[in-house]
Amino acid sequence: MDIDVIILFFGLGAFAGLVRTDLRLPTGLYESLSLYLLLALGLKGGVELARFPIGDVMLQAIPVVAMGLLLPLLCYPVLRRVGRLPATDSASIAAHYGSVSVATFAVGIAHLDSLGISYEAYLPVFVVLLEMPAIGVGIWLARRAGVGRTGGGSLAHEVFLNKGILLMGGGLLIGALAGPSGVEPIAPVFVDLFKGLLALFLVEMGFIAASRLKDLRELGLFLLAFGTLMPLAGAAMGALAGTLAGLSPGGVTMVATLGASASYIAVPAAMRMAIPEARHHLSITLSLAITFPFNVLVGIPLYTNFFGH
Question: 81: buried, middle or exposed (CB in 10 Å: 19+, 13-18, 0-12)?
């Protein structure tokens, strides 16, 4: 069976981290690649969004957003009652797993493209919409348990105007307004180079994931199991949401991938402000060292086999 070349780049970065080499991308380059991926995905989705009635897309988004609201509500009691974690940690982790990982989404898109499986190209709309609900639910869960604090304007700014939403949402808007002909002059950068730059980004992601393996001892067996089993539950919910939305098999696969992913950018920043008492390194380690590698190496091929045909 052929292995997606993207996964091999992630493996290279992970190996470099395990053997403790200095193979790390410069910080500025890594951040630039992150911004590039957000904007490129948004542009691609925006161009396709222009071809469809916005009302139809928003109707399809209803079950997808519902998934984003339900996932943290599913996670929280498991973390509290089975894992016996404090309310602060449970709410924070639940928010991470209710939100989405743009990097996981990008890998899923690249995987489907490599297999020639079609999907609704406006799916980045769903990524933008899924950034916010889980943060709100996580904050509500913390308030309900009597922990956390009111973040005021700073928290609202982080939730609604973080760089992920701003760049991907901005890319969607630009792509929709410019249309295929308007985006064509910049397609060599934002379309043709996408997979190559994603490969570079995944080298660094592999390195980061491997470097966090030293923190696994603190997680314990329950959280290790949670980090691998929760993506499967999230993928099942995502597949159901995608099916209810009437998406193609490729689209269902991608919504399943979103349901299986966990945020490591937007949610951590919001949770630090909303629930400062939580042990935020637990959420980051779970997202980056367990769930992200699981989805890249096992999950995405699995979801594709189950839902993509």
Answer: exposed
Which residue do the tokens 């979801």 mark? 303
Please give, one letter per residue, the 3-state secondary structure of 179-218.
HHHHHHHHHHHHHHCHHHHHHHHHHHHHHHHHHCHHHHHH
**Strands (DSSP E) found in 102-152:** none
Task: Round to whole Å and give the CA distance between 275 and 178.
Answer: 40
Contacts 24+ apart (CB under 8 A), 190-196: 190/36, 190/39, 190/40, 190/43, 190/44, 191/40, 191/44, 194/37, 194/40, 194/44, 194/110, 195/6, 195/110, 195/113
Low-confidence residues in the chain, pLDDT < 50: 1
Distance CA 127, CA 265 (A): 13
Asked if 284 contacts 264 with a C-beta cutoff of 8 angstroms, the reply is yes
pTM: 0.86
pLDDT at 217: 73
Nearest to 286 by CA among 223, 197, 203: 223
Contact at 8 Å (CB) between 58 and 125?
no
Domains of the chain by start residue, with CATH: 5-17+26-301 (1.20.1530.20)
DSSP 3-state percent helix, strand, coil across the chain (nearest 5): 80, 0, 20
